[in-house]
Specification:
about 250 residues; three-stranded antiparallel β-sheet; 3 strands
Amino acid sequence: MSYSVGQVAGFAGVTVRTLHHYDDIGLLVPGERSNAGHRRYSDADLDRLQQIMFYRELGFPLDEVAALLDDPAADPRAHLRRQHELLTARIEKLQKMAAAVEHAMEARTMGIDLTPEERFEVFGDKDPEQYAEEAERRWGGTEAYAESQRRAARYTKDDWKRMQAEVADWGERYDALMAAGGTPDSPAAMDMAEEHRQHICGWFYDCPYDMHQGLADMYVSDERFKAFYDAMRPGLAEHLREAIRANAARHAS
């Protein structure tokens, strides 16, 4: 069985001109010619072309490819092992590059399309992308996460500042509630918990009561979230968790 130059070009996804060039420089000389002098490629020629394409994909110049393939001491299996090692290393490098690109995409999708000055103005010393990777790992397959990403991608600097102002105002009022001795199951605390849930619904994603309770548990179990809420007032994270639970029970009854 032999194949025409056009057929081989179709198999390999290269141009006829490329195959002619490989023939001209002696890199891939077809094993046969037709009676009319046309190139005919054997299965062995196709094997060699595959090796050429592997090395070219790895960035080897044509003269080095020829030297490697024409080495009389080289075992075809050794070529495959070498190519496998090189391809594996390249895959690892590309995966790291892809991760870097994905990280940049995450930042853009989070809506943090601000100048450096605006980023510091809005967020101060807090990095809004700090938990992006963890958030995707925890909730990346959920509709809530996707909706949050879609909404955040549209937010401007003023949106982020308005959101922060709402959180700050809520925190001050919750601090006052605790200072006045309000218990988590008091109507005022449950109302604050409901406002917290509505803030999530309004800015990020639909947050039903069962999901809200799951978040409340995380606010206490995850030290970083606990520190965020306890910075408003010591003990606020646990107080809020109980208020969220009480609010959920109130609406379930």
